[in-house]
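Need the bound structure for pyrazine-2-carboxylic acid, inputs here:
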Amino acid sequence: MPEALIVIDVQNDFCPGGALAVPGGDEIVPGINALLPDYPVRIFTQDWHTADHASFASRHPGKKPYEIFEMPYGPQVLWPDHCVQGSEGAAFHPCLANDAAQVVIRKGFDRDIDSYSAFFENDRATPTGLEGYLRTRGVERLVMVGLATDFCVHYSAIDAVRLGFAVRVEIDLCRAIDLDGSLAAALDAMHNAGVTLSSR
Ligand code: VGL
Ligand code: ZN
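Answer from helper R.:
Posting the output first, comments after.
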């Protein structure tokens, strides 16, 4: 059974200088490039928002980035505007070997709902289609790397376990936003869900 490498959101806006920069986000690029040839199935994801996306604090008068907002689907962190469809910030980091991607999953493209996970939007129910892609290719084991450990990697890993995949997160090839202890909480949640957290 082939193993898939899922490279999550290694985009300019999540790297230093970007709109939602993750500390050290660019440091993982060489390690990810080196890993790609080892995997027969290679999937990249891109956070891909409309310019007026509901997860942007700028859409909510009086709200500031990193405040929590109650959406119909539950509490949502409000973010600085980032990863707007077609923008330079939404592009992959220029050194990322993204030609290796066999499929690129774009997520968060619906204005009214965010999508941290590569599998489901933040209602935890609307699928992105990735599950079907993996199943039809006969994949049962996943390795995840990318940004950010405590949001998109975390949600993707938990959803994948819930769907029955065996999941390993290469923690050294991830970087975190770490809002109010969110990194520790994410590591705990992944561990408790049965995700293997490996470090090289
Ligand atoms: C992400 C916050 C907002 C991520 C995406 O890729 O982890 N975080 N949008
Ligand atoms: Zn986003």
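Comments: The helical segments are 29-35, 130-136, 149-162, 182-193. Residues 171 and 199 are 6 Å apart (CA to CA).
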